[in-house]
Amino acid sequence: MPEVIVVGAGPVGTLLSAELARAGVDVEVWERRPERGGGSRAIGLHATTLTALEAGGATDRLLAGAVRVRRGEARSGGRLLGTVRFDRLDTRHPYVATLPQAATEAALSVGAPAAERGVRVTGIRPDGDGVTVTAADREGRAPIVVVAAGVGARDLVYRPGAPARTAYPDRYLMTDAALPPRPDAETALVHLAPGGVLESFPLPDGHRRFVAWDAGGSDEPRARLDRLRTALRERGEAAAADSIAEASSFAVRRVLAPAMRRGRLCVIGDTAHEISPIGGQGLNLGLLDAATLAPLLIRWLRTGTEPSGSLGRWERERLSSARTAGRLGAVNMRLGRPLGAAAHGVMTRSLGTVLAATGSLVPRAYAMGFDAAARRR
Ligand SMILES: Cc1cc2nc3c(=O)[nH]c(=O)nc-3n(C[C@H](O)[C@H](O)[C@H](O)COP(=O)(O)OP(=O)(O)OC[C@H]3O[C@@H](n4cnc5c(N)ncnc54)[C@H](O)[C@@H]3O)c2cc1C
Fold first, then answer.
1. Which atom of ligand 1 lies closest to the CA of 8?
2. What's the 177 CA to ligand 1 centre distance in angstroms?
3. How does pLDDT run across 33-76, given as a tens digit for each residue?
4. Which atom of ligand 1 is nearest to the CA of 101?
5. Which of 131, 195, 340, 371 would suit a FRET pair with 313, their CA atoms being 20 to 30 Å apart?
6. Full 3-state SS string of the chain
7. Where are the domains of the chain?
8. 10 C-alpha vs ligand 1 centroid, how far in Å?
9. Which CATH class is domain 4-69+93-165+253-337+361-375?
């Protein structure tokens, strides 16, 4: 019997299993997908996360293939409204490290046990001294089970309706594209326009991620691409409009579970909390869940005594960080919604003043400086 079963080999489950294995814990990972997923979702890793991952060596591997984004700019109609200076943060990593999620997962998987793939967990039953995990073709048991199985696995661990949900009306178009060289290749850009926001983030090898607020319309691939091209042209990104070849689309919701542990069962990452990708903190939250939970589980297994006070504090702090990140994501979305010309004028005039007046507050909030994990270092 392993000491820990981790359900889900996404980035969060992979980090947790690597951290446990590094301490000599016997850990199994059960993953429903036969192969690791390819598409890119999260691209930004923040200062607090990079600091938390240093001990296991993941930070060096991540930074080796990442762009270090030290500065962000808010623009409107080609005019600079204000800057967000990550390089002025008082941290060992004064930047946002950007790389595709698949590259992040590969860097996190060094030292992690190979996942048992093609195993879809269908039931999880905690009892007095362990937790039983059921899949179609097997049953397993471990003293501790951690569920890191993303948004689709909530019904395994929560009563239907127990996690609090907020649905947002917003939809976004997204693409990652190779671009011709440009002077602002390492600057994050937020173009605010009366028709809605366009965000543009550097990625390695001359690529950029574009995300545009979408008024909606046909979901045909060609129609999505045309709408994103129009958004790019209207916001001064004509060269990018010519370079992109596809556009995906996503909707947004916010979900927060009532709890992240019950006895010997813990729940982390997107299974416990889902926030808007606008703001780019969902993966960071999950990685910080894993990085801060691992030492508590190791202590529990090595001493044989549940660190119940520390686990209770961990749970309160993680839920509080998820709540804060969810609120920040909601503020970001509000700033990026379409506005009438007059309201847009007021908003863009005040934004520059706010960015200048608040100094490091905005970059610190983006860099997860509010997270409980940041206060511990
Ligand atoms: C468009 C988009 C852009 C984003 N951008 C950012 C960003 O820039 N920065 C950021 O921080 N976050 C971002 N996010 C959020 C980020 O991608 C997620 O928070 C992150 O992937 C969550 O990781 P996870 O390991 O918790 O879940 P997942 O990545 O979903 O992994 C869960 C794993 O569990 C497996 N699994 C599921 N059910 C079962 C089961 N029953 N049995 C066994 N295995 C199972 C799945 O196959 C999967 O491999 C973005 C999200 C989207 C959609």
1. 34
2. 22
3. 999 877 779 999 999 999 999 999 999 999 999 999 999 999 99
4. 17
5. 131
6. CCCEEEECCCHHHHHHHHHHHHCCCCEEEEECCCCCCCCCCCCEECHHHHHHCCCCCHHHHHHHCCEEECEEEEEECCEEEEEEEHHHCCCCCCCEEECCHHHHHHHHCCCCCCCEECCCEEEEEEECCEEEEEECCEEEEECEEEECCCHHHHHHHCCCCCCEEEEEEEEEEEEEEECCCCCCCCEEEEECCCCCCEEEEEECCCEEEEEEECCCCCCCHHHHHHHHHHHHHHCCCHHHHHHCCCCEEEEEEEEECCCCEECCEEECHHHCEECCCCCCCHHHHHHHHHHHHHHHHHHHHHHCCCCHHHHHHHHHHHHHHHHHHHHHHHHHHHHCCCCCHHHHHHHHHHHHHHHHHHCCHHHHHHCCCCCHHHHCC
7. 4-69+93-165+253-337+361-375
8. 6
9. alpha beta
CB under 6 Å to ligand 1: residues?
Answer: 7-13, 30-33, 41-44, 101, 120-121, 148-150, 152-153, 174, 250, 269-270, 277, 280-284, 286
This prediction has a pTM of: 0.96
